[in-house]
Amino acid sequence: MAYSTFVPVNGTIFNITSGSDCCTQMIALRTGNGIVNMMVDPQTMIVDNRQLRPGMEVTAFYDGSLPVPLIFPPQYRAQIIAVRSRNEQVMLNFFGRSLLAQDRSLQLNIDRNTDIKTANGQNFSCRPENQVLLVFYTATTRSVPPQTTPRRIIVLC
């Protein structure tokens, strides 16, 4: 899967409805730019298999290379949904050998408290360099690039 084309949408779930069949749902998110609808189907990766509920703060990723209907509010097919803690950010990017994001937007400083797992919840015992990572973090430095010690990393092998 080409994670480089994934686009994040940060918002609060305010409505969940059944989709066209029993295996899909439509999640309505209230974002800083208005309402965005995200279709969730069996192929959507929900981090930690969490039960989504109204009021949850989430970051949903959709594939920006796929065609979308020209409707309002916008509607996308969610590829990944991550529930965020208060004041937490989630980033999906390729991190190279020095744990610098490919777009140079974030530098990771991993410590012993950083929880590193694979997408299916297994411990990841190697260094997470040269991998696509889903990174959960709060504060960053004001340096260029910003640096953070993430709370959690999910390696998308």
What keyword list fits this structure?
single chain; 157 residues; mainly beta; five-stranded mixed barrel; four-stranded mixed beta sheet; 12 strands
Describe this structure in words.
This protein is an all-beta fold. The protein has strands at residues 6-18, 25-31, 34-40, 45-46, 57-63, 75-83, 89-95, 107-108, 115-118, 131-137, 147-148, 152-155. The chain contains no helices and 12 strands. Strands 1-2-3-6-5 form a 5-stranded mixed barrel. The chain is globular and about 45 Å long.
Summarize this, please?
The protein is built from no helices and 12 strands.
Give the helix proportion (percent range): under 10%
N-end to C-end Cα span: 10 Å
Global structural class:
mainly beta
Largest sheet: 5 strands, mixed, barrel
Task: Please give the structural blueprint.
Elements: E1 6-18, E2 25-31, E3 34-40, E4 45-46, E5 57-63, E6 75-83, E7 89-95, E8 107-108, E9 115-118, E10 131-137, E11 147-148, E12 152-155
Parallel strand pairs: 3-6, 4-6, 8-11, 9-12
Antiparallel strand pairs: 1-2, 1-5, 2-3, 5-6, 7-10, 10-12
